[in-house]
Design goal:
The chain is of the alpha/beta class and 417 residues long. 35% of the residues lie in helices and 15% in strands. The strands form four sheets. It has a five-stranded mixed beta sheet.
């Protein structure tokens, strides 16, 4: 299969790929932006076809799915990663590392590799065109992959390109270096989602687009988060709501670092915040089911593309977006997303670090507050966890009491699930 058919969506009969509707001419019927690549990819097997696919998969060789690959598979299937129709082959992989674009016609911007690592001995038995089952450990197959390529990754070079470093203390680098260097590329079909602890919030891009249209929203700001929303985040979100019709509060619930708060705790915080401090008809809370890479600027571009696929017209990029340990410049992510914005097709709302200023008496940023750091309330995540575990209160200027109550209960008991 040539690269043109793989990337543009004009797939041959029998491949299983189909757009949910004809390619958008820039905006969909509700006035929302076209998905990345022009059409929302749909790789889900439904109805009687699903039963047939499950039955056939029982007789196929199976490839193991680690948790990250499993979440990537579901994101591929539901169009979160449009225009990708499967795990990357060597040409897409090399092109993404070299210049953040997919290989072939269109040359769509794409900043992160989406690959399926497999053990080397397993890969040796694969042939081009072979269909294999995809199965998480200990479970029955959830989908299939038709092999287009088997290739070897240079893991150190990948780490340097994606993360700007090959230092294994970086969590994304550590994950990459633990992978098998052998990867399998190919088209996928999927019939079962990963177990989701938040079924009421597991909206696909097709579902969020339909909901936005139902509410009459023609402009939607997406907010990426992997932390409980504190007052500074709330300030940024409400600033955005002054400019757009609605907010997609979109916490990442895939794999994160062990020191990050569990997703279940964070979700209870978001529910409390929306219940008490946001107009319910102007906010949609849904989960973003992919793993955190901690890739800074490149991941900010990735997050923007995914939120465009969900139907957002705007994407909020804060200070050190997707960063870790101060490894990236505080505005490097904003700079890269702004540079690529004309091609990304989603507007960037760039915010400086927000804080509570005791002299101003409100939440502000350096753009609106003239006072020095001595007036600013700033508490690190480590300090927050320490205060809560010791039973000491957080200042109300830092976090809403309803959110603090959720965090105190979770951290005080050592729980969070």
């Amino acid at each position: 299969m040539d690269s043109t058919t793989r990337r543009t969506g004009h797939m041959a009969e029998g491949t299983g790929w189909r757009p949910l509707q004809p390619p958008y001419p820039g905006r969909d019927a509700g006035g929302l932006p076209a998905p990345h690549g022009g059409a929302l990819v749909d790789l889900l097997v439904r109805g009687e076809e699903r039963h047939d696919a499950e039955r056939r998969a029982q007789g196929l060789a199976a490839l193991p799915l680690a948790p990250r690959a499993h979440s990537d598979l579901w994101a591929l299937a539901t169009g979160v990663l449009s225009p990708l129709t499967g795990f990357m082959d060597r040409d897409d992989y090399a092109s993404v590392l070299a210049d953040m674009r997919l290989d072939g016609p269109g040359r769509w911007i794409w900043p992160l590799p989406v690959v399926l690592p497999v053990p080397a001995d397993t890969a040796r038995a694969l042939t081009q065109g072979q269909t294999v089952a995809l199965a998480p450990p200990g479970t029955s197959p959830v989908g299939t992959l038709t092999v287009t390529d088997v290739f070897t990754r240079d893991l150190l070079a990948e780490a340097r390109a994606v993360y700007g470093t090959d230092d294994p203390s970086h969590p994304g680098v550590a994950q990459t270096l633990c992978d098998s260097p052998v990867a399998v590329g190919g088209l996928v079909r999927v019939w079962r989602s990963p177990p989701a602890p938040f079924p009421g919030y597991a909206s696909t891009p097709a579902e969020t687009r339909a909901l936005f249209a139902q509410r009459g929203w023609r402009s939607v700001a997406g907010f990426q988060t992997r932390n409980p929303v504190h007052r500074a985040h709330e300030y940024i979100q409400k600033c955005a709501l002054e400019l757009v019709d609605g907010l997609l509060l979109h916490p990442l619930v895939g794999e994160t670092r062990e020191e990050d708060l569990p997703a279940a705790v964070r979700m209870r915080c978001y529910e409390a915040l929306i219940r008490h401090y946001f107009p319910a008809d102007r906010v949609v809370l849904a989960v973003f089911p992919v793993a955190m890479r901690y890739a800074g600027p490149r991941e900010a571009v990735f997050h923007a593309i995914c939120r465009k696929n969900y139907g957002c017209t705007h994407f909020i990029v804060g200070r050190d977006h997707a960063g870790v340990g101060g490894r990236y410049g505080p505005f490097a992510a904003q700079d890269l997303v702004r540079e690529l914005q004309p091609e990304l097709g989603i507007a960037v709302l760039a915010f400086d670090n927000a804080f509570y200023c005791r002299r101003c008496g409100n939440t502000a940023t350096a753009k609106t507050c003239p006072h020095g750091d001595d007036w600013h309330l700033s508490i690190s995540g480590t300090a927050v966890r320490t205060l809560l575990r010791e039973g000491r209160p957080l200042p109300p200027e830092f976090s809403r009491p309803e959110v603090v109550a959720v965090l105190a209960q979770a951290l005080g008991t050592g729980g969070g699930s």
